[in-house]
Design brief:
Number of helices: 0
Number of strands: 27
Distance between the termini: 40 Å
Radius of gyration: 15 Å
Structural class: mainly beta
Helix content: under 10%
Largest sheet: 9 strands, parallel
Mean pLDDT: 95
Low-confidence stretches: none
Strand content: over 45%
Amino acid sequence: GFYIYKGDENVVYRNKIHVNEGTGIYVEGKENNIQENKVVASMERGILISEGTENGVKDNEVKENEQEGIYIDGGIGNKIQGNEVKENNGMGIGIAYKITHDENMREPSSNVVKENEVSMNLIYGISVYNGRENDIEENEVRGNETVGIIIKGDENTIKENKVMENESVGISIWNSRGIIMEENIVTMNKLGISVK
């Protein structure tokens, strides 16, 4: 696939990235734009942003990858918008902390996940794990095999999403503070909303 290592302001546009042994598109840098690509059947993740800042992932088709469709690993200020993310064998879209080389935890923050169609993924639709102040808004999260949207982290916002027909909980909040959850449509899931 594509590998951008500590690169800034690059554009990956309208490529067909199929059946790679690793990750389809790997980005470690800032202000790169990943747009209108088809990323299918990679043996690892479809698109991975590792410790990246202010990258854009927009209008891609990401499906049938062996791990997550789109994954932010310790990134800050990235925007994931307008993607079709479906039938991946991990999560559809995941945001999580990264353990750096000096064994510190880099917390993902201020990322935006907006206007994506996230469906029929094997694990969660959208997941935030140990991230702060991320915005999950205006997504359609449908028919995932477990939870639609799952959050473990403080001060994240879940707003105006349609969360439906997921096999377990529609929206699940774990051990979190300061969550803003408003104007979501949560329907036809096994359980609507869970806060623990």
